[in-house]
Design a protein that fits this description.
single chain; about 170 residues; alpha+beta; 4-stranded antiparallel beta sheet; 6 helices; binds flavin mononucleotide
């Protein structure tokens, strides 16, 4: 798929069919995330791969009862790893770069999944501690996004965007 078609056809999908994600596609998605840029190339984030329905149900509870989370064949939990960035960049790395690293890696994964004919939704509304508990993650990592991936069982309409005139502010 053309890169700009990938961007313009992507939709947040919240109903998935039970068809599993092929292993080669999953590996391509993970490689795309790993190819994302990061501050100082430190990759100050971790990815947790969740296929267990039990863990997905715990994530759904952690995400304020968004039960559709358990209907996707898999979820990737992107966590900032602030200590990795702080080592080189101090407070700015801890506070900002680790979150940016996790965010851009998740965006790459999302677009890669779209390019492979898969559907996704980015989940950001959750209780951090409950997500940490659900994935049994070591201390010191902050969940940034849960990305659901699977085959769509709905076809959502495009959502509205601000006009570029409203969004973009030329600075002379
Ligand atoms: C930071 C962030 C947090 C989001 N959190 C949620 C969420 O918790 N639950 C959900 O269903 N969608 C969530 N979304 C998806 C947005 O609702 C969706 O991207 C937006 O409505 C635009 O629709 P579209 O993705 O289909 O273009 C989130 C998206 C982003 C980028």
């Amino acid at each position: 798929m053309d890169f700009f078609d990938v961007i313009s056809t992507r939709r947040s999908v919240r109903v998935y069919d039970s068809r599993p994600v092929e292993e080669e596609k999953l590996q391509s998605i993970l490689k795309a995330a790993n190819d994302a840029p990061s501050a100082g190339n430190l990759q100050s984030y971790e990815i947790y791969l969740v296929r267990s329905k039990t863990v997905q149900r715990a994530l759904a509870t952690a995400a304020l009862g968004q039960l559709f989370i358990a209907s996707a064949p898999l979820a990737l939990v992107f966590c900032a790893h602030p200590d990795r960035a702080a080592h080189q960049y101090g407070e700015r790395g801890r506070r900002l770069y680790a979150v940016q690293d996790a965010t851009i890696a998740c965006a790459y994964a999302m677009l890669a999944a779209t390019a492979l004919g898969l559907a996704t939704v980015w989940i950001g509304a959750f209780n951090d501690e409950e997500v940490q508990r659900a994935i049994l993650k070591p201390e010191g990592q902050i969940p940034v996004a849960i990305l659901l991936i699977g085959y769509a069982a709905e076809n959502p309409a495009p959502t509205r965007r601000r006009s570029l005139e409203d969004l973009v502010h030329p600075v002379e």
